[in-house]
């Protein structure tokens, strides 16, 4: 058990999951020392200029539903690569209707705050409320 705990701590340190520069507020994201930061759904993600944040949401474009993201204004976050790419789960040959995960990467370009809003809907159903909405509050220092 001690070996397992030591492995987890080592992995966290190697991947840059530690915090630096102050205590994170309860219920918010942290400012890691490096690497890619996973966005905090429904909470706040804090980044430093130059860091990359990723958002990954479950999806299945074979149903007609796709994630749409609000435009990011003000230059706080800049879209990176991949941006809105769906990666389908591994499946048997010929199997149809398999879902996956859609990924977005953002680069923290300048200090500021922004809220990213993702809506899961069919493009042709503009008068229908989205099936799902997710928000990510991002603060860049």
UniProtKB/TrEMBL annotation:
Taxonomic superkingdom: Bacteria
Record-linked Gene3D superfamilies: 2.60.40.2020
N-terminal signal peptide: 1-22
Pfam family, one: Inhibitor_I42
Annotated keywords: Protease inhibitor, Signal, Thiol protease inhibitor
Listed SUPFAM superfamilies: ICP-like
Residue span, Proteinase inhibitor I42 chagasin domain: 47-138
Keyword presence, Signal: yes
MF terms in GO: cysteine-type endopeptidase inhibitor activity
Name the record gives this protein: Proteinase inhibitor I42, chagasin
Protein species of origin: Brevundimonas subvibrioides (strain ATCC 15264 / DSM 4735 / LMG 14903 / NBRC 16000 / CB 81)
């Amino acid at each position: 058990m001690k070996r397992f705990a030591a492995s987890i701590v080592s992995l966290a340190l190697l991947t840059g999951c530690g915090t630096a520069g102050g205590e994170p507020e309860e219920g918010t994201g942290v400012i890691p020392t490096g690497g890619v930061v996973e966005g905090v759904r429904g909470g706040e993600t804090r980044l430093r200029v130059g860091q990359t944040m990723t958002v990954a949401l479950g999806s299945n474009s074979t149903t007609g539903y796709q994630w749409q993201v609000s435009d990011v204004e003000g230059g706080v976050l800049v879209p990176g690569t991949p941006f809105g790419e769906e990666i389908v789960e591994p499946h048997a040959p010929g199997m149809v209707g398999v879902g996956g995960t859609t990924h977005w990467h953002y680069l923290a370009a300048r200090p500021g705050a922004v809220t990213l809003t993702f809506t899961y809907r069919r493009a042709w159903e503009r008068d229908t409320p989205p099936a799902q909405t997710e928000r990510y509050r991002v603060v860049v220092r």
